[in-house]
# Entry
Amino acid sequence: MSEATRDPISAGDPLLQLRASPHLKAPDSTPKIMWNVVGSLIPVIAAATWYFGPSALLVIGAATLGAVLTERAFGTPGSLADGSAAITGILLGLCLPAGVPLWIAFIGGAFGIGFGKLVFGGLGQNVFNPALLGRAFLQAAFPAVMTTWPGSPGEIPSWSQLRGDNLAIPFASPSTDAVTGATPLGLMKFESTPTDVTRLMIGDISGSVGETAGVVILLCGIYLAARNYLNWRIPVSIFAAVALFSGILHLLDPARFASPLFALFSGGLMLGALYMATDMVTSPVTNAGAWIFGIGIGILVVVIRTWGGLPEGVMYAILLMNALVPFINRATQPRPYGSRGRRAGREAPA
Amino acid sequence: MRARLSFRHGVHPPEHKELTAGVAVRRMPYPDEIILPLRQHTGKPARLLVKVGDRVERGDKIAEADGFVSVPIHASSAGSVRDIGLWPHPDGSMAEAVRITVDRFSPQIPRPRIIPHWEGLTPDQIVKAVQRAGVVGLGGASFPTHVKLLPPDDVTVDTLVVNGAECEPYLTTDHRVMVEYPERVHHGIRIMLHTLGVSRAIIGVERNKPDAIEALDRTLPADLDVTVQGLTVKYPQGYEKMLIRALTRREVPPGKLPMHVGVIVQNVASLACIAEVFETGLPLLERVVTVTGPGLRKPSNLIVPVGSKIRDILGFCGGLADGATEIVFGGPMMGASQPDLDAPVIKSTTGIVVLTRAESRPRRTYPCIRCGHCLDACPVFLNPSLLGVLAQAGRYEEMEEADLATCMLCGCCSYVCPSNIPLSQMFALAKAGLQRRKQQAA
# Structure
């Protein structure tokens, strides 16, 4: 084409677009956030596979398959591409014991998506974290399987050995030839035996598939926070509340109550605080609300762990606080520009 | 030492000002035809004075102010009135306009001194002269300037805030005015301070324009209390409310004007225009416009006669580049897409931005995931996430209770929303819907 000035078009030229302002758009999108979360979980999955062998991959895969197939079957067409179903499945798989039969992991994923998300209306509409709802369902339906922990990695003869009866036929009673162990929280609660914190941090312990490598989870969470894909106020307030509360208890009776570091790196706290509680849909929309939400979870975790019948309380703590999110949102609405004192004036008696 | 001055929240869109920031202002030759809509300002449209076939000289009044909140319209070129009727208006509607065929052989010599010198005039006479010159806010809001010069008796103004922030991406209109005509800006400030009886003026300029800050500092008048303040580069720093917050720490209550907190805000280009009007004795006939964007061959800063058509201006700037998809009047954050290339530049047109598919490609909308990014972006601390849900349900009255009126449609929420929900568009529709419902109820 010549450099000659081309007539800048006649009226109604098809190339002219009409759009509402703003005409520029930030590069982030909902699928980009979701797939970033999935990507950030890869090191966690790798650590899980390191400690729990092929069982880890099988359990995570089964849970993800259950979640994804349910989304595909009953969700909005095309909604798989937004990545949220994959997150639910992977997170559920990460918080199951490695020896859980695959069909149970699959049902958990399907329940989480079906009853935790789709019945509410799909993405953005659910009240409870779908992965945790799936886990809560499994805990209620299969309590024995859900509390059978494989031995810590050091007690397993070979890496490639399955950590339980993963391949059990549905509804048949699983064989019990696997090496079983106790989680650090169980040891602490029922036998008052603390576990070395260094082992907790690197994950060389018994527990759920992806909950043991505390430091790996923490680093992955920091990546997401740095990209503003999770609200850092939630994990920070959870950690602060847990550390403070358990620290006070530890000072009162060091033999009975674990140290704050133990509290932070044991059980599902790291995964829960960084990946479950920060689920955008089921956490408060305001920053003030995020602090309240996190502190509430932290306190509930310590309360359940200390005085409840269960050794671990992260799941119920988050689900309970999920239920309060609408109220937290309402109580922490931002104060609009220029309205200083107006609200107070309205509420003051005439 | 200058403090870091800004407001909370806001967004950082790519600036793209490099396309024209260093390009000196050029004068565009007169086009063949000038289109002058009678509505170029906030308030009542001007009242027509001419008829088809009339001969007009440059600077002749062709429509007069209809009331106090209104300004006259002047012929920006010598020529003859070809037609009077509906014509595409940059706001997207069809509006009554005067179509003038430019006299190609006219030397464009205006009638001598339509506006008197301001020295020796009383404030009231200056206000009248500014109205007679047809001056409106050139920053985009197009509010008649003389109205701001006459605050009611029950308010006390102590500060003139001069808006040189120019926070919209791409635009460099105010930037070039400050760099090339700093004395004129200061002269405008002098007239403004004299008329208002105010002693203090603060000029706020975003720090991405160091040459503008330097030029204004260099020409600072010794006898006036004028300071130049660098501002953090952030959108919407140039919004009246944000600028007042940054420079004076005051907040304008909802439904109130800046003058209620003792502040009058004027854009730098408007001030230069006031000075020019009194220096040349001519009314507002032309303005600086940034014509830019990735979809344009020769991005430029131009002085164009008011009423020049988009077609003629784009043609002068080398025409459209391949891939141009959208033509926006004003900045890309707040501006309006133009459906018709025959629409004219009016007094309030700050820029013409030609975007390409890279900026304007359609994006899929997802459900709100309550990420809260819109709350972190909203410069007036609303909850766009909640307002969006209410807007989708048509619950406009509840939106009103959630302070919809405070929303100034800056577009920050839409800009950051990862789900591409057109929040600010929904809020604009809700505002219009509320007004309609109220009119029906009345």
Notes: Chain A has a mean pLDDT of 87. Chain A has one domain: 30-331. The CA atoms of residues 186 and 311 of chain A lie 5 Å apart.
